[in-house]
Design brief:
2 domains, 3-stranded parallel sheet, 3 strands, mainly alpha, 4 helices, Protein Binding, DinI Protein, Chain A
């Protein structure tokens, strides 16, 4: 049985196209998302909230206002771990502390403002 040169070339071309599509999909779905690293400055968010609560507590005169400030602090303490758990799903990336990053790259995202929005949301 003789296979024509045209059939061999067509098979090679189809194989090359399928391989190229597979490599492109692998690059888009596996390699590139793995290159993205999100960083978050938890200490900065914590310090700013701590300063906010301290200011509220020092400026209030009534026990009711102090209780409201304590409830705000308690809500923050409950929202912070949940917000940190949501960040990797939101950016589809690895999230690390900003202090652990030696130098930012084009593939590094600063997610501190997103964390701040998440813990400020009611």
């Amino acid at each position: 049985m003789s296979i024509s040169l045209r059939t061999v070339l067509a098979s090679a071309l189809v194989s090359a196209v399928i391989a190229a599509i597979g490599i492109a999909l692998y690059d888009r779905l596996v390699v590139r998302p793995a290159l993205v690293v999100g960083m978050v400055d938890v200490a900065e968010v914590y310090r700013s909230k701590e300063a906010e609560f301290t200011q509220i507590l020092t400026q209030t005169r009534s026990d009711e206002d102090r209780q409201k400030a304590m409830q705000l602090a308690k809500a923050f303490a409950q929202r912070l771990p949940l917000a940190l758990e949501e960040l990797p799903r939101d950016c589809n990336c690895l999230v690390v502390l900003k202090s652990a990053v030696a130098g930012a790259t084009p593939h590094t995202l600063d997610l501190t403002s997103l964390l701040r929005k998440k813990v400020d949301a009611p």
